[in-house]
């Protein structure tokens, strides 16, 4: 990083005044802040020291994220940039919807078999009234 351009650290400047002399000095302190780029510098493990459970879970999650980026995002980066990947994702959702509709159709066939069941009682309608019309028209 160039000096002053590191986005992973925050530079704090404090103004300190000496009690007896009254002189002023500035103290700069750098503090690590959350950033995507911290992904590339994981916490180091001291020799013979094991990481706690939270750090291990964080490293496992980071590994999964890195794997997804490498396997799915990077190879299709141009498609995401041009917007074609989003269209393909919508197509995939349509296929899932069609699968759900096929399942519904199979359930309808099961409902029709109920007519042969002796305990089947269809919904009663009043004689002389036309069937209710669809309200979505």
Instruction: Specify the overall morphology.
Output: elongated
Helix content: 40-55%
Largest sheet: 2 strands, antiparallel
Distance between the termini: 63 Å
Helical run tally: 3
Series of secondary-structure elements, N-terminal to C-terminal: EEHHH
Radius of gyration: 33 Å
Label the structural class. Answer: alpha+beta
Mean pLDDT: 74
As for the number of domains, it is 2
Strand order of the largest sheet: 1-2
- Sheet-strand content, in percent, reads 5-15%
- Indicate the low-confidence ranges by residue numbers: none
**What is the β-strand count?**
2
Record keyword descriptors for this entry.
two-stranded antiparallel ribbon, NAP_family, single chain, NAP-like_sf, 137 residues, alpha+beta, 2 domains
Overview of this protein structure:
With 137 residues, this protein is of the alpha+beta class. It folds into two domains: 1-38, no CATH class; 53-112, no CATH class. It has three helices and two strands. The chain has a two-stranded antiparallel sheet. Strand 1 (9-17) and strand 2 form a beta hairpin. The two termini are 63 Å apart.
What's a quick, concise take on this entry?
The chain has 137 residues and is an alpha+beta fold.
Q: How do the strands and helices of this protein lay out in sequence?
A:
Elements: E1 9-17, E2 24-32, H1 53-73, H2 77-82, H3 84-112
Antiparallel strand pairs: 1-2
């Amino acid at each position: 990083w160039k000096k002053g351009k590191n986005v992973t650290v925050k530079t704090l400047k404090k103004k300190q005044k000496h009690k007896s002399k009254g002189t002023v000095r500035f103290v700069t302190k750098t503090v690590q802040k959350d950033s995507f780029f911290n992904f590339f510098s994981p916490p180091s493990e001291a020799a013979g020291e094991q990481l706690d459970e939270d750090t291990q879970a964080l490293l496992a999650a980071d590994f999964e994220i890195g794997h997804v980026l490498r396997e799915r995002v990077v190879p299709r980066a141009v498609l995401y940039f041009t917007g074609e990947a989003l269209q393909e994702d919508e197509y995939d959702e349509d296929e899932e919807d069609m699968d759900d509709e096929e399942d519904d159709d199979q359930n309808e066939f099961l409902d029709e078999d109920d007519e042969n069941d002796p305990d089947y009682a269809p919904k009663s309608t009043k004689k002389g009234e036309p069937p209710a019309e669809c309200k979505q028209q």
